[in-house]
Amino acid sequence: MKFSLHILKLFTFFFISYSSLTKADSKPNIILIMADDIGVECFSSYGGKDTHTEHLDALAASGQRFKQCYSQPLCTPSRVQIMTGRYNNRNYQGFGWLDPKEVTFANLLKKEGYSTCIAGKWQLGGNEKTIQNFGFDEHCLWNMHKYKKSDKTAIEEPKDWLRRFDNPTLYRNGQWYQPGEKSYGPEVCTDFICDFIGQNREKPFLVYYPMILTHSPFDPTPDSKSRKQDIKQNFTDMTHFMDKMVGRIVAKLEQEGIRDNTLIIFTTDNGTHSKIKSNTDKGVIQGGKNQMTDAGTHVPLIINWPGKIKPALSSELVDFSDILPTLVETAGAELPKDRHIDGKSLLPVLEGKVNSRRETIFCYYWDYGRNKAKARAWVRNERYKLYDDGSFFDITADKSENEPLKEISATQQTIKANLQTALQGYLQQQP
Questions:
Q1: Structure confidence by residue, pLDDT tens digits, 288-333
Q2: Long-range contacts of 41-46 (CB under 8 A, 24+ apart)
Q3: What is the pLDDT of residues 81-112, one digit of tens each?
Q4: Are the beta carbons of 313 and 256 closer than 8 angstroms?
Q5: Complete edge-to-edge strand list for the sheet that includes strand 376-380
Q6: What is the reported pTM?
Q7: Fewer C-beta neighbours within 10 Å, C or N terminus of the chain?
């Protein structure tokens, strides 16, 4: 009897150990890529005619492409929102800064045993400890610069800290790193990510890649045929190179035999620079970075996970607050209980379990964070947008928001009233 009991205990031990191991091994790898300053109109999978983003087109064709994803109009507000799952009226404190009290998706996945890496553009203040406190094990970053005067943790940057493309100055795992004259910043960051993938292929990992491309200055890339300062041509070349870097990461996953167990999400932080005009299947679109219109906030969203996500074109309404809860649910992690998360997980949509999760999304924006009194806000559904000053637009008919609706039907009056109620609800939220 004692022998049988001993065998039973031994069996139970191995069963629990095996179950835990299987659960850990089954967790998917997650790669979140966010390009810089490039709107939806610049991608061939979204109707862009000036570029051929072949690697992203392939991900879109075999994954889900979302028609209605919206960011903030500027880089830091978008980075704060996507990393925390919270709207900017809760936690945005100024340009180039993320409150150290915030919890990021890296913090939450790290608790679940994920190895974590960030490479690319930081622009959130602090130092190596700050990056680690936000949940990242390894980092290779540009823009480790002191924007907030009260940031006593900020490191002293070299005089040439602004170099991001040719011969870049980066901050790699707590040390300034200058790889040399023949180096190109986006390639260095991609190499860092590929090395991280190779080193962590046996366990679940999170890679967050806020890319350096395609932000100005619009300089030639290593693949450019000309070294002339042609803004439009160089931007096109930068877009192609950005797509090439995405392709390299996908190829690395395939090489390591872990592509099928990796969720890839691609988006961009805001609209294109105003100097760039893009030819599309809907005409010429001028970049609208810094603007709260679609030109400043309408961004691509491509999500790909072989065998898990069926190819689809989705009209689902999405904003950056939805990314954190999506990563958390995918990883089997838990949302923080000490703060409100505004977003809703996209996983049910990706798995085909629901067609819609939310009726409205919200934008609260105060430019570079220099004057909060000038903050503006809007709320929108799939077709209509309402600003906090009462301006009401039919985006389907007036995508550039040239003229607010003045004479509205009874149906539109009801829609406007519902949006007004939603807007007030968003604005009254407490941190």
A1: 999 999 999 999 999 999 999 999 999 999 999 999 999 999 999 9
A2: 41/272, 41/278, 41/280, 41/285, 42/214, 42/239, 42/272, 42/276, 42/278, 43/300, 45/300, 45/302, 46/280, 46/300
A3: 999 999 999 999 889 999 999 999 999 999 99
A4: no
A5: 361-365, 376-380, 384-387, 392-394
A6: 0.92
A7: N
